[in-house]
Amino acid sequence: MPSWFNTWFNRDGWSKSIIAIPYFWLVFFFLIPFAIVVVMSFAERTATSPPVGFLPDFPYVTFENYGRLVGDWVYIRAYSTSIINAFMATILCLIVGYPMALGITRVNKSWRNILLMLVILPFWTSFLLRVYAWIGLMGSNSWFNKLLTAIVNSVLPADMAFRNIPMMNSNFAVVLVLVYSYLPFMILPLYANLEKLDTTLNEAAMDLGSRPWQVFKDVTLPLSIPGIIAGGLLVFIPASGELVIPSLVGNASDPMIGRVINDEFLTARHWPMASAVAVALLLLLVVPLMAYNHFEAKAQAGGKP
Amino acid sequence: MAESGGSAPFIRIENVTKKFGTFAAVDNVSLDIGKGELFALLGGSGCGKTTLLRMLAGFEMPSAGRIFIDGQDMAGIAPYDRPVNMMFQSYALFPHMSVEKNVGYGLKHERNMTAGDRRDRVKQMLDLVKLTELAGRKPHQLSGGQRQRVALARALARQPKLLLLDEPLGALDKKLREHTQFEIMNIQDRTGITFVVVTHDQEEAMTLASRIAVMDRGVIRQVGTPTSIYEYPASKFVAGFIGSINMFEGKVTAATKGEVEADVPELGGKVLLASDAVAEKGAAITVAVRPEKIAISRARPKGGNAFPGTVKDLGYFGKDSLYRVKMASGTVVSVNSVNAIRVREDQRVAQWEDKVWLSFEPSSALLLTQ
Amino acid sequence: MNRRPIFLITCLCFGFAFFYIPILSMIVFSFNRSRLATVWGGFSTQWYGKLFENDQIINAALLSLKIALISATFATILGTLAGLALARFKKFRGRTLFSGLVTAPLIMPEVITGISMLLLFIMMAEWIGWPGSRGFTTITIAHITFSMTYVATIVQARLSSMDTSVEEAAMDLGSRPWQVLIDVTLPIISPAILSGWLLAFTISLDDVVITNFVTGPGSTTLPILIWSKVRLGVTPDINALATLMIVVVGVGVAIAGVVMHRADARRERDIQMAIAANK
To answer: Are C245 and A125 an interchain contact pair (Cβ–Cβ within 8 Å)?
Structure first.
């Protein structure tokens, strides 16, 4: 190797290359593409190829796409469906996941590792196939649907009995599969949080007269709020932008926002509109993230000993 | 066993055993503790002292045996129903609650207290540990010593019949420790609550406690006042565990009432001991002498129990000095002498490689058989 | 108190039933004789046979593996560099933007990442004539980009929990900073790098949304193939394919678990013996 290279590399070239290589990659393949989307959201659809164009005169950009976003009922409905579905899924994940995460911290060490592996294992199997498994279960001829129908009918009066329960292609199905797919994302941060809690705090509360339920309410629950928020965001953020689940089990006439972006772009070939919807979705997700960052910073500042 | 503190035992531990699997952490322990005592459980790690404490608190249930507190059988009573509070080794302060909330936490469950009563009690407790100005702080804003006092106040707030302290001074630095020791004794004196302290630090146990139980491998080796444990240890284990001590093997050559003469080859001669122990001629015994009870001199002292040796090591600690003297047999004896008068280095009693004489009173030597 | 938390254990049982009943049902129905995927018609292994005769599935699987191997390797290199940059260089120009760029793909909805990547490739083709057609290369670039940020996050977390005095010791003994990196830092964080690679590999193998945008005619990965089949309905051969994939992953995870458990146990024993030898 030439000597100037050696000198350069030994002085600060090595550190410069460490920073520069991934930096340029991300700028080129992530930042610039995203900038293109933002710019495109101010363009209009044309009959050319690619089907995008800017206005011929000043100001060259149009806000028409964003205007449609707040004016057209379809988009408002899609946004609210997304938020409601993602929020329901997050709450259900919390209700199902919290006792599971807490339960895992209460078993002995070898069981703990097995149970954690069982939580992670579905994550390693194909996401699509896990959605597919539910399609099989929810179909009106499946054993699961028949079992559920029988259970429901046994409590309903005979004249109200169902033949089967229409589960597929509904928001119910979307939420169910969202919960199924994202539950590990709730359990793992919760577990990490709960496992770090000092069990002598529980003993101290009990020593001071608290029964197990009060110990949970006064000690465990308030100390696990960072875990609840982290898990909640890990479920809520990807769930609200989800495309696969609503496309496979959702109701086509009441789509989530991810599906709207996809259809707008690939089917309607209205790239500027798709870009505007995407930018708006991102802005929507930024709000909970900022809240999380704020909370994190506060937690760090008032950090535990 | 030494006399118990009060009249009727306030805490009675009856043949208590605790097994974890096949391992007996506490092995058939019986112990009485009187009302108002400051009692210490002393032992190395894994000796079972903490397990015993946790059984008093109710976090562990005995595998066998019974525990009575104030005449009440504790079997099956959960920690939250016991008139016992504990100060945890890690303090276990609730990180999300202020000092005030921490101290008042246990009072939430006192049904017959009004909100005003609770506030008064918290204030009274904060006064007791001198933390009134810090009432609004969170635990992470406190120093180690302040946290320790919050933990103490929190445990005392419910006015328990029995307060358990798990290594109360373990996390404090040396200077603070001395101060806190006296504060704990002071508080115990003022409240009159029975304190049981677990510690591995013999000095801490000696200064704090009115009585000490020395534990080893799940059993109690000796119970007594600090003086009786230090000056009259019942076994080689206790003698060696509390303070430092020189121990020599010997054989009894003559025994009269109150006096025993033994041949101790390690010291190179006969030793005279004042001892009430019944020793038969020819019996193998251990002679134990604490380093500070041995005198060191250049000239041969008058009287018996004097043995020659050579100074091999010398440690100067300011208020006292430690000599390590090698005897003719090769045994090294530790001698601790107080530097009562100020002298220059070259005027010391002895220097390295000096020939010296060691001597001790017959009453200062201990005769141990186990 | 060592009382069994009965309520929590019940919740665990129901939770794991929820996790595994759909998967078990899928495995059972892969042995179904009937063409109807959800009605039992007797035992048969015919769908597995059909699977191995299906060139389309085999080719898609091979393409997916090829993309996953290449993209995971590049993502690991780039991600490790990014993690190092973030954890070890506290001050450089544009650090805030860089750390934003590393976290953003993690939270960016896949649809948006997919669209922006596709637009980039279309624009590049317009202006510089490359890539002429979308497929293997564009998929690989897209996969590298989003999985390198996962690797960077893992590596950065590991580095910030690492004891830096070891690095200082190496420098004190005469190593130049980049030699310290190679001799000390990288070996210590190698388990994190390995798990980063595994994660990148799995993510690439599993991705459907972004791939769906940046792929072109003729480049069908396995998830894209499954996606197009599943949209048409439930078919028994997908059950068989799913079962095979689950078995492969399950066996892999089990082996990894046993190996790691053994290594842990050995380490534990070594520590015990060292302590005993010291006494």
So the answer is: yes
- Residues C38-74 as b or e (16 or more Cβ within 10 Å = b): beeeeeeeebbeebeeeeebeebbebbeebbebbbeb
Is residue A261 assigned to a domain? yes
Would you tell me which CATH number, out of the four given (3.40.50.1480, 1.20.210.10, 3.10.25.10, 2.40.50.140), belongs to the domain B244-368? 2.40.50.140
> Residue C86: which of C39, C30, C148 has the closest Cα?
C148
Q: Is C81 on the interface with A (CB under 8 A)?
A: yes
Q: What is the pTM of this model?
A: 0.85
Decide if B282 contacts B313 (C-beta within 8 A).
Answer: no
C205: pLDDT strictly greater than 70:
yes
Chain B residue with CA closest to C1: the answer is B59
- Reply yes or no on whether the pLDDT at A6 is more than 90: no
Residue type (1 letter), C38: T
**DSSP string computed for A218-244:** IIIHHHTHHHHHHHHHHHHHHHHT--H
In this predicted structure, the answer to whether residue B286 has a pLDDT above a threshold of 80 is yes
Q: Which domains does chain C have, with CATH numbers?
A: 55-233 (1.10.3720.10)
**Is position A26 within any domain?**
no
Residue A15 lies in a domain: no
**Complex ipTM more than 0.85, yes or no:** yes
CATH topology of domain B11-240: Rossmann fold (3.40.50)
Q: Cα distance from B64 to chain A (closest Cα, Å)?
A: 23
Angle at which helices C95-107 and A14-26 cross, to 10°: 40
- Residue B211 and residue B224 in contact, taking contact as beta carbons nearer than 8 Å: yes
Q: Give the model's confidence band at B6: pLDDT under 50 very low, under 70 low, under 90 confident, else very high.
A: very low
Say whether pLDDT at B92 is over 80: yes
User: Which residues does B109 contact at the CB level (< 8 Å), separation at least 6?
Assistant: A208, A209, A210, A214, B80
Strand partners, B310: B326, B355
Most confident segment among A49-58, A145-154, A210-219: A210-219
- Using CA atoms, how far residue B339 sits from B318, B361, C115, in Å, is 7, 20, 86
Among candidate residues A228, A210, A227, the one with its CA nearest the CA of residue A219: A210
pLDDT, one tens digit per residue, over A219-263 is 999 999 989 998 999 899 999 999 999 999 998 889 999 999 999
Q: Taking the CB of residue A62, how many other CB atoms lie within 10 A of it?
A: 15
Strand runs (DSSP E) across chain C, as ranges?
none
Cis amide linkage into residue A50, ω under 30° from 0: yes
Question: Chain B residue closest to A215 (CA)?
Answer: B80
Chains that touch B (3 or more CB pairs under 8 A): A, C
Give the percent of chain A with pLDDT over 90: 55
Provide long-range contacts, Cβ within 8 A and 24+ apart, for B117-121. B121/B157
